Each structure stands twice: as C-alpha cells, then as structure tokens.
From TrEMBL:
Keywords: Flavoprotein, Oxidoreductase. Signal peptide: none annotated. This is NADH:flavin oxidoreductase. The lineage of its organism: Bacteria, Bacillati, Actinomycetota, Actinomycetes, Mycobacteriales. It comes from Rhodococcus pseudokoreensis. InterPro entries: Aldolase_TIM, NADH_flavin_oxidoreductase, OxRdtase_FMN_N.
Length: 389
C-alpha cells in the first residue's frame, strides 16, 4: 500500500523545517501606504500564522524602486528592515516561518504611479498605465539581477526564514521567458536558453547572496495564458535548468499574466464592474467599454493547476509547491499523493485566516471562499483587500 506524507507533519524545506506543509501564498496586501511595514501588515500575516500555516509569504517585496507595481508597494532597503523585523517576529511568535517574495515588476509596473520607468524585454504598451514601456538595457538587467542579491541579504537581516523569487505572471524575469513579450535579438532573446538567462542569473545571484542561511523558492509560471506566450513545454525545461543549477530549494508553480490575462491565474468570476470602478480615467472608461473582452472568466475547480503541475513533477526531483484551488483536506491529501511536497493557499486564507487550524480539527471543513474574485480589483485601487461573500 502506497503511503504519502501527512500534510500536517513537520517538513524540511532547504535548511529550515516547517511545522507543516501548508504555505500561505503571496497575495496583494494593500497595507503599506508609505512603502514600509505597518501594524496592519503585521496583523495581516500574524492571523494566518496563528491560524495554523507552516509559513506565510510577504508579497511583492520589490528589489528596486521602479520594480514596484505602484508607489505604495514595499521595496527592500535598509529603512525597511526594522519594520520587517517586527513582522517576522510576529509570525515567529505564532509558530510559523516567514518568507519574503522578492521580485521586480518589470512591464507590470505602473510608471504613472511610481514616477519611474517601467522596463520590459522589448518595447511594448502597458494597458494599466496607458504608456509605452521601454526595453531594458544590458545595464538594467545587470543592475536588477544584482538588486535581487541585495534584497535577499536584507531579507536575512530582517529575520526571514525563506525568500521566494518571483518568476511568474510576466513580471520582469517572467517577461523575458515569454516569446510574446521578448523579441530581443541579443543574448537575452530568441532561444529558450537565452530567454531563461535572467531567471537563472537571478536565482544564482540570490543563492550566492544567502548561501544556505535561508530557504530559496522560486515562483515559476507554467503557462502565461496568452497566445504566443510562455507555455508548459518550455516551463518544464526551465524547471530542469533551475534544478541543474542547484540555485533553488523548491518551486511554487503558477500561471497567468498580470499584464495580459490576470484572471487566468484565479479562475472563478470576472468582476468587470468592480475592476472598472478601481481604475483611474481613462483606463476606467476602457474597462467599462471593453472589459468583458479583456477580463476573462474561467470556470473554477479545486486543484485547477494540478494537470499542468503533474508534468513538472514528472520531470524534476526538486520539491514542488502546488498552488491553485487548495481549499480542504481532501485536496491537500491529493497533492501529497501526487508527489508534491507542499501546498499553497491564497484566497481561502484571505477569506478565513484560521482555516488551516479548523481543517486540522475537523477534516471535512471546506473554505467559505466562493471565488467571486471581488478581492482582485483592490490591486489596482490600492485599497485594502475586502472580500465579499
């Protein structure tokens, strides 16, 4: 009889041990009005830590000022360390580990908000800022790569147990993987080996910066969800490259493009009216007129990334984190039986931060989240995440 790990048993992740195999995935928080930690942000992460997760991931710790999606987003600098230390202390006090998601928004950055130029592999248009995005130079790529290492060292100084490098959703590194967004003719474009250079160099830089002091995860897209974008066949090869490099301890698998098809990641309802209300003009008018053609609804089902993720699982021995529609004990057990070492939860924990403890106490407990996705438009309004039943 084949057995699988108990999702609630302690588990090793790189150099650290988590009290269980359940991770709160990085989600928009909207609680850093001055791009620094606040008491509200601390409470946002303390609650799922108290609620039983093994690790909570602090979202969008940008590695550079222009790498923020908007001006209120946290970015890694010495001034941020005291607040981040208070945050990690609060998570640790509840018995959970703390992870910092490090990344650069690249073409997803709204330069109208940050006041700094957004960067993409190739010149392109950003529908969020209604501006053209300039192509990153070799010097930009080198600077941003090095900034990931600096940010990782600051994360260690801040008391984080892990860092998660953002290689998804067409942020900077992910956009280089995309044949649709990366039309370069130099050594960063063309073949998959060239398009994967940024991802591999960033991961190596982070590893060199922190060694074995903290766990290193990478959030890797399996499918951009747009024609001509990065897709599973190449994602399998990139996962194999990262395993060969020995630069990461685990991969969290994801999908979708925050720039071109944001709802592909989430599944469920597409709240077009709420998206329009969250946007400034003239973007608001555009969403009102053409929102249904831009913001697509995808049917929700539990474990909706499993079919893609199985193919990554078959190709690598690296620990993998299954994300997407993990809402109950049955789904967690399925992930363990399929060979995934960890599961990640997002919307379910926004709705109910104590869900993990309740599932542990009563295995038949299910999430109350109905996948209406009305929490999503808060990303663009800068407001706090408010979930509507």
């Amino acid at each position: 009889m084949t057995t699988h790990p108990d999702v609630f048993a302690p588990a090793t992740l790189g150099p650290i041990t988590l009290r269980n195999r359940i991770i709160k995935s990085a989600t928009f928080e909207g609680r850093t009005p001055d791009a620094l930690v606040t008491d509200e942000l601390i409470e946002f992460h303390r609650r799922p830590a108290a609620g039983g997760v093994g690790m909570s991931t602090v979202a969008y710790c940008a590695v550079a000022p222009e790498g923020r999606t908007e001006r209120r987003q946290l970015w890694m600098r010495p001034d941020a360390v005291p607040g981040l230390r208070r945050l990690t202390d609060a998570i640790h006090a509840e018995g959970a580990a703390a992870s910092a998601q490090l990344g650069h928004a690249g073409p997803v950055a709204n330069e109208k908000s940050t006041g700094l130029p957004a960067l993409a592999p190739s010149r392109s248009f950003n529908p969020l800022s209604m501006r053209m995005i300039r192509s990153a130079t070799a010097a930009d790529i080198s600077r941003i790569t090095a900034a990931h290492g600096t940010a990782a060292r600051l994360a260690v100084e801040s008391g984080f147990d892990a860092v998660e490098i953002h290689f998804g959703h067409n942020y900077f590194a992910s956009s280089f993987l995309s044949p649709k967004l990366n039309r370069r003719k130099d050594s960063y474009g063309g073949s998959l080996e060239n398009r994967a250079r940024v991802v591999r160099d960033v991961a190596r830089t982070v590893r060199d910066a922190v060694g074995g002091r903290v766990a290193i995860l990478a959030k890797l897209n399996m499918d951009d969800g747009v024609p001509g974008g990065f897709w599973l066949d190449e994602a399998i090869q990139v996962a194999m490259m990262l395993e060969l490099d020995g630069s990461v301890d685990a991969l969290e698998l994801t999908m979708g493009s925050s720039l071109l098809n944001p709802m592909y990641l989430f599944k469920g309802d597409a709240p077009v009216r709420e998206f329009a209300d969250a946007m400034p003009q003239p973007v608001r008018l555009g969403v009102q007129l053409a929102g249904k053609s831009m913001i697509h609804a995808y049917p929700y089902r539990d474990l909706f990334m499993l079919e893609h993720a199985r193919q990554i699982r078959a190709a690598v021995t690296l620990p993998l984190v299954l994300l997407g529609g993990v809402t109950d004990r049955a789904g967690m057990d399925t992930a363990m039986a399929e060979g995934f070492e960890f599961v990640a939860m997002a919307r379910a924990l926004l709705r109910e931060p104590d869900l993990v403890n309740r599932i542990r106490s009563e295995s038949g407990t299910r999430s109350l989240c109905i996948h209406c996705n009305k929490c999503m438009p808060t990303i663009f309004s800068g407001a706090r995440c408010v979930l509507v039943e």
